[in-house]
Amino acid sequence: SPGRGSVPPELSDVLERDSEARDMWDAPSPSHRVEYCEFVSEAKRPETRVRRAAKTVELMRRRRARKGELK
User: Fold this and answer.
1) CB–CB of 4/41 below 8 Å?
2) Could you tell me if 70 and 40 are in contact, meaning their C-beta atoms sit under 8 angstroms apart?
3) In this structure, how many other beta carbons lie within 10 angstroms of the beta carbon of residue 50?
4) Which positions ≥6 away from 62 have C-beta within 8 Å?
């Protein structure tokens, strides 16, 4: 489960509310998780960070779907 120290609050909130997203959070490598966190936290406006947090979950879902297609 993500720690609030490294995960932006906007992303942490999404992960807390969405159990599927929370389960997916552990799948990417640590470097990918860092990139996701930076993508969210680098936005200046709060509403942009919220949008980017939602986009991060969408990206994780797409990555998971692609991996499923490869099996």
Assistant:
1) no
2) no
3) 18
4) none
